[in-house]
Amino acid sequence: MRTIQRYIEKAPKSQANIIEGKYLNIIIDTTFFGREFGVLVLINSLKKKVIYHRFVKTEKDVYYQLALNQLREKGYIIQSVTCDGRRGLLKDLLNTPDTNVPVLYDCDSDA
C-alpha cells in the first residue's frame, strides 16, 4: 500500500482536462488497494475519460455525493449514473427509485 501511495505522489501532476459537452453519462467505482487505501473514480462513459478521482479510506455514499455535486457546480448535467453495489445511492442523490437489476448467467449444457 505504501509503495502505491509513493508512486502516486511521485507521478507528474497535471490539470484536469476540461470535459467537452454539458451532459455526462457517468460510471462510478471505488477500488481498494489494501484495507484503508482506495480510489474513487468517475468516468465519462461517452468519452472514456476520467472526470473525477479522490483517494478514500472507506467507501461511503458521502464521497459519491461530493463528487457528483462538484460536477453539478461546474455546470454539468448528469444524464445517467452506472454504479455497482451501492444500493440506495441513486435514490438519495437523484430521487430515482432503487432498481435491482438481476444478472443472468448463460451456461451451455449438453444435457
Description:
The chain has 111 residues and is α+β, with helices and mostly antiparallel strands. It has a domain at 20-94: Nucleotidyltransferase, domain 5, CATH 3.30.420.10. 25% of the residues lie in helices and 29% in strands. It has 3 helices and 4 strands. It has helices at residues 2-10, 61-73, 89-94; strands spanning 23-32, 38-44, 49-56, 77-83. It has a 4-stranded mixed sheet, covered by helices on one side. A hairpin with a 4-residue loop joins strand 2 and strand 3. The protein is globular, with a radius of gyration of 17 Å. The model has no long low-confidence stretch (mean pLDDT 76).
Query: Beta fraction of the residues?
Result: 25-35%
Helix content: 25-40%
Low-confidence runs: none
How many β-strands, per DSSP? 4
Query: What is the top-level CATH class of the domain at 20-94?
Result: Alpha Beta
CATH superfamily of the domain at 20-94: Ribonuclease H-like superfamily/Ribonuclease H
CATH architecture of the domain at 20-94: 2-Layer Sandwich
The name CATH uses for the topology of the domain at 20-94 is Nucleotidyltransferase, domain 5
